[in-house]
Amino acid sequence: MQTSTKNIPSTGLLTVDLKALVANWTLLREIMCRVNSSAICAAVVKADAYGLGADQVVKALWLAGCRVFFVATVSEAIVVRKSLGNEAVIVVFGGISHGLGNEWLQYSLTPMLFQKEHITRWLNYSVAKAKKLPYAIKIDTGMHRLGLSLSEFREACVEIKNRRWHEPWLVMSHLACADDPGHPLNHCQLKEFTEAVSLANAKFSNTCYSLVNSSGLFLGEPFLFDLGRPGVALYGANPTPWKQNPMNNVVKLQVPIMQVKTISVDEGVGYGMSFIAKRVTRIAIVFGGYADGLLRALNYSGFAYCSGVKVPLVGRISMDSMIFDVTDIQGEISPVIDVLGEEQSIDDLAKYAGTIPYELLTSLGDRYKRVYVPVERDSCYE
């Protein structure tokens, strides 16, 4: 993912490699299809595709063969529908808790239903519209977020069958500890979900089942079922923190140096003078701060790269700027600092900030100019 430093705008450049994104989805689809050649690899594109731009992301994934997309809200779903047309399946995690307006029918959206009364409301709505409107059911198998208990799901299955309502398109649950393969809850949830699948199979004939998220895809064949729902792994974050990242890097963030200056021993920088130079120090002041998703948690621990050299963040991050120690760079200093890229992944930066890649990706601000490396050709476009 090469970008000329001459083209870096004054507010920074966020480059999204759609080729790498598609390669990641393809790898995850291959995992899903090892057991069942007809298995589905969906894509979670909520929060504007984890901050990277849903319109561009879903179009690239659609061209690669992805046909099922998950979002959090109706408004997110409408964006995806307008980007892809009528054929994609779009599932809304928040379900009808966001209301039961005309958008569901107008944009052919599939709600995730996680309460019994929601199932009743949706199926009555379908009857009123004289349509078999698709829906998904979420079961709580131990994470204790949204979802029906196993006993509630059993009752729902009986009611759906007795009232001759149409069956759900999808039944799913969500793993709480998939990024820790040795955690005992993983197999407890698998056992609970397998029981739910047995209950459903006794009542329904065309329902598919989904348990795995990004990390869950790597827990082994018994967890895979019919549909995988990768999210953060698509965007390059490591779904297997216990070993080397199998995913391609998708995001590159470059911020411009606004000024380079030299400070003397015992001089400080930034608010509070929290950094005091112990040597004659060259510092680079760059655009980009906590207003742009570069969290203050990186204070005293963050690094970036300049001219191929790892440079430490010094002083406190401000709203619009950061300061790096570039003293150890020999020769000419590059006009940009590479915050994210091949040398520093989203996982690396998250570790320095004491957070997770999800938070950093979804916090990346809209002041960066975004360019996309397309799947079809080598040049970038905005």
TrEMBL record:
Modified residues (N6-(pyridoxal phosphate)lysine): K46
The enzyme's E.C. designation: 5.1.1.1
Keyword Isomerase: yes
Alanine racemase C-terminal domain span: 250-373
Catalytic reactions on record: L-alanine = D-alanine
Chain's role: Catalyzes the interconversion of L-alanine and D-alanine. May also act on other amino acids.
PROSITE patterns found in the cross-reference section: ALANINE_RACEMASE
UniProt-listed GO biological process terms: D-alanine biosynthetic process
Gene Ontology cellular-component annotations: cytosol
Listed SUPFAM superfamilies: Alanine racemase C-terminal domain-like (SSF50621), PLP-binding barrel (SSF51419)
Official protein name in the record: Alanine racemase
Stored PANTHER family: ALANINE RACEMASE, ALANINE RACEMASE, CATABOLIC-RELATED
Keywords carried by this UniProt record: Isomerase, Pyridoxal phosphate
Pathway info: Amino-acid biosynthesis; D-alanine biosynthesis; D-alanine from L-alanine: step 1/1
Family: Belongs to the alanine racemase family.
Transmembrane segments: none
Domain of life of the native organism: Bacteria
